[in-house]
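Entry 14. Ran structure prediction on the chain below.
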Amino acid sequence: MSPVKQKSPNDVVITGVGIVTSQGVGIAPHVALLSAEKAPDAIVETERFAPYPVHPLPVIDWSEQIAKRGDQRQMENWQRLGVFSAGLALDDAGLKDDLDACGSMDMIVAAGGGERDINVDSLIVDEALKRNDREQLLNEKLTTELRPTLFLAQLSNLLAGNISIVHKVTGSSRTFMGEEAAGISAIETAFARIKAGQSTHTLVGGAFSAERLDMILLIEAIQGHALDGWSPIWSRPESGGMILGSVGAFLVLESREHAEARNARIYATIDDIGGDRGKRDEGKLEARLETLAAAAVDAADTVVFSGTTGFPDLAAREKAFVEANLPKAALRGYSGLVGHGLEAQFPLGLAFAALTLGAGAKVPPFDPAEKPLASQPKTAVVTTIGHARGEGVAVLSAE
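Output, structure tokens:
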């Protein structure tokens, strides 16, 4: 059994979860899949971006969280997804209509860049085939073809700005960029501020739209895609890799004292969290993971939610690390079910862990290579190893 931990007023607890994946919108479908005897099939779009499969967005009524059509129209899909998921988290925490609480709520967002003008990109590439003065060509097209408003729409901190406008979250605001590491840093910073008494309640998370030609091109540039169809995350072939997933994942984190003062429902406590980055050769990755996972509990009631990319080498090294250091725990690679969400990947793992511990869900295997949980989970470990750099580990416990 996992050890009983002493409670403290500055414990960091999760009181709200906003989640959107290809499996559905909100808590209900995700608790259902975490509680099912058998995991649902992955939902994968294989035609629109062939040969690159993606886990697409489900059907969403944006007006449920973004009431004004004007607000919806001026956002790109990744921003809509983030604002929508943030609203779900605030609703779930019972804070959506509490103007005082939202007015003093801190916000930390992990975000990538805005969507590119694909027509201009294509024009530049086509023209570059006909000319040798490509630097001159690029300057010409950047000054004549791009709309001034496009630069505004690409600002990463617009996601936080739109959340402030739509949901009236107007405390301090921070935005992190940097793919998976951004999501790790966002959660880690929120945790540290609450733990230190610098914040009492924080909205934190990220969003990623996989259904973007520019993002698909970026991953293709490093030959990082799994091609032609879905395959289980732990057994993708050497030619395999990431299958991107459209994901929105936001959490409301509070100090225990703040949450208990308003009689909030608590999903789980975050016991420890850490992020790092560095070279990965000669066992350096495993050494960092060992340090980051020092607080993890090896027990039959521990579930490990891995945000592995699906890159064969990284996936094999992470699986070997977990099996060697947490042999009693049950591993769950959630990327195989809902795809890889870059900035949103680590927040998504914490959302799955919080829902699991809050519901006492005996999570079914997501992959044939995973073993069943021996008992109802009491602790959860969340890992994310960035596709290029950055690692993060969080340890959570049930209330």
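The first strand starts at residue 12 and ends at 21. Will compare against last week's run tomorrow.
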